[in-house]
Every structure is written in C-alpha cells, then in structure tokens.
Amino acid sequence: MQTTFGTGQPGRENTDLAFTDPLTGLGNHRRFFDKVDRLISDRADDPAPFTVGILDLDGFKPINDLFGHKAGDDILIQVAMRLRASMDSYSTVCRIGADEFAYLYPMVFSEEQAAEKSRMLIEILSAPYDVGERTARLSASVGCSLFYSGDETTEILVNKAETALYHAKRSGRGRVVVYTREMEEAAKRVTRIEQALRRAVSAGEVEPHFQPIVDLNTRRTIGFETLARWTDRDLGAVPPSVFIPIAEERGIIGPLSQLVLRKATEAARNWPKDLFLSFNLSPSQLVDQNTGLHILAILDRTGFDPSRLEIEITETGLMTDPASAEKIVGDLRRVGIRVSLDDFGTGQSSLGRLREFHFDKLKIDRAFVSSILDDRPSEHIIRAILAMCEGLGMDVVAEGIEEEAQADRLVQFGCAGGQGYLFGKPADADATLGYLRDSYRGALHAKAI
Fold first, then answer.
1. Are residues 133 and 212 located together in one domain of the fold?
2. Residue 385 is part of which domain span?
C-alpha cells in the first residue's frame, strides 16, 4: 500500500503516522501485525520457523507514579532506543501498549535461541535509566512463540506469546517463557475456572469458612479468620490457592470479597460479642478507593459492629500503591476497624511499613513458626519481632501452629496469640457455631466447678 505514494507525498506521511508510535518513534501495534502478516505470507510455500516475542516492563507503574509521567515517558523512550539498537537488520521491534513492546526475529528458528536472545534483551534493559538527576532501574518479562505451520496466523502467534508472558509474570520478574502446548491447556483451564467463578459469585455460591485464633496462654478462642471456600458443580472443590489469584488477575476479587464478607458478618453477628472477625483484603482492593465504602455498606447492611472487624493486609498489597493503601487504612481505622499486617517477614521493607502505617496487630508468617523448633535464625527472628511489637504497642498472632511444642515455645517467647491446625481447621458457619457452643458450654461448666 505504501509503494503507491511517492516520497514526501501526504498519503505516504499519513500512512507512516498510522503505523508509528508517536512517543518512541517505533512502529505501533498495526506495524507489528503488518510485519508478521507479510512474513507469514512470504513463507507460505516453505514455512520456516521464526520467533515472535512480547516484552512487558516489570514495575513500570510504581516508577511512573514516583517520578512522574514526564519521567515515565523519558524512560520509555530510552527503552525503545535500547531495543532498537539491539535489533539486527532482519528484526523488528514495536511498541504495542503502554509499557509493552513486541519484536519479530525472522532468523531465530529454535526455542533455545528465542529464549537466549530474549534474556539478552532483559539484560540490556536492566541497566540504570537517567531520570533528571536521579536514576531508576527496571526489569522486564518476556513471552515468546514460534511459527511452525502455515495454519498459524499473526493473531494466534501473538496470543500464544501473550500466554507465555502471563506465565513469565506469574513466575517472577525478569523471566522468559517460550510457549508450549501445556501452557495452552493451562490457559484453557484458567478460562474455565474464571467463567465458573464469575457464575458462582453472581449466584452467591462462594462460602466463608472460619479458623480459630486463640489466646496461647489460656487456649481460649478470641476470634476467627475468614477464608473463602468454593465447590463448583462441575469442577468440584477448587483450592483458594487456585481461584484467588485468578480472581485477582481477572478483576473478580472485588465482588468475590464483598460476597464473602457479607456472608461472614451475617454468620458472626450473633456470636459472643468478645469475638472478633478477621478478613483479608487483596492488593487490588488497596488501590480501589471504593473499598472502604463497600466494607462499611456491608457492615451497615448486616448489623455487624465495626469494632469487631479486623482487616488483614499484606506488605505486597501496601507496595502496589502506598498512598492509596494509606488512605483506605485510615478510613477504616477511623470507624473502629482494626488493621493487621499479615505474613510479616516475607515481603519487602517490613520495618519501613511499620513506621509509615499504624497497624493494630502483626501476624508472624508460618514459615518462621514451622521451623521454630530446629532453626535458630527463625527463633531469633520471632524473638526480635515480639520485642519490636511490644515496643510499638502492637498485638501479635503467630500463624501456622501445628504442634504443641511450637505453641509452648511461642508462649515461652511471650507471644500472646496463635492460629493453626493445632487449634482448629477452617470450618463452615454451621460447624463454627457448633464449635462455639461446645467451647462456651465447657467454659461455663468449668466456671461453675
């Protein structure tokens, strides 16, 4: 199409603009698809392999928020320059999204070579970027797919690369994944679970289960953590380790969380008033300024006392957007809701978070508790956490307690709260109510004696 216009003619210029990313000067999404379409056509009679890659910058949004959009644009321009310089005369790189780039390697014929060249790109992008008088660092994740058959279209190849990128992002930063048939099956399963989960949330079929939190000295139950459980009529019982990440990634976590909180507070409102209910917020909920309003609306609807609710958040959730998280946490604490820092010790900048945010409680991660009996570093870390929390006036709960010896050691160290299979596994609302009746009947009987 472009050859019908002479150099410098308006038609040629308009065509070039339509295929060019205005910020970086690279080709855009249309240019990339056009290039791959042409290569597939050229190799129709002899479909020799070639490689398509999708590169996504890791952590670009926080850098953009920290340094500002102008600096973010400058970084993207520097990324584009590095990528363009790394391409040989046969290859093409285009910007196809805000922080996403696509490249075409016509002369890369194997999965091993595709992975090797993609790792080289990640290495090139890992060098510092100039942002005024400061510098910033980035990593990148890459998904690749290879053309093998004339039946494959550009859209199919790009979708496969996107699927590989999804797996790369899930496995950590700075990874390269080349598409395989197993990924396609895994992607189809994720889609099936997503569709079934949307239906289940709409129909109110996800249920809260409750795990006891106890006073380690007296073994008296002082509260319960709410955990989501889902059994699908076709898929069977789907573990939360499977459906919660899918809910996060596919934008279902908000409605799912609201459903479980509503059911949990309806069940817990008639429990003894000295028992609290603990509930987890996901990282994506800590960037949604409507989260606090949704929680308060649910409490008002179910008649649950805000002072009996504890919200658990993780360091990962705080890191996503600290300013947003701080506002949401502040709004919740103002109405009497307590806030706990969950999985302490496994995230980043733990001590900094304790200084910046006002937490009522800290939960020691099960990784330290599980090794407390035979690992001196874990023992020292737990002792240090307990001493720190005493100084900060924070309550502490140790998670993942499964043995009496672990509980005894924690009591010896001065830990007041505990949670784990030793005290009870998560149970549904009816079973939890039965547990409470038995517990309080026993307590009343002991008091009478």
1. no
2. 204-448
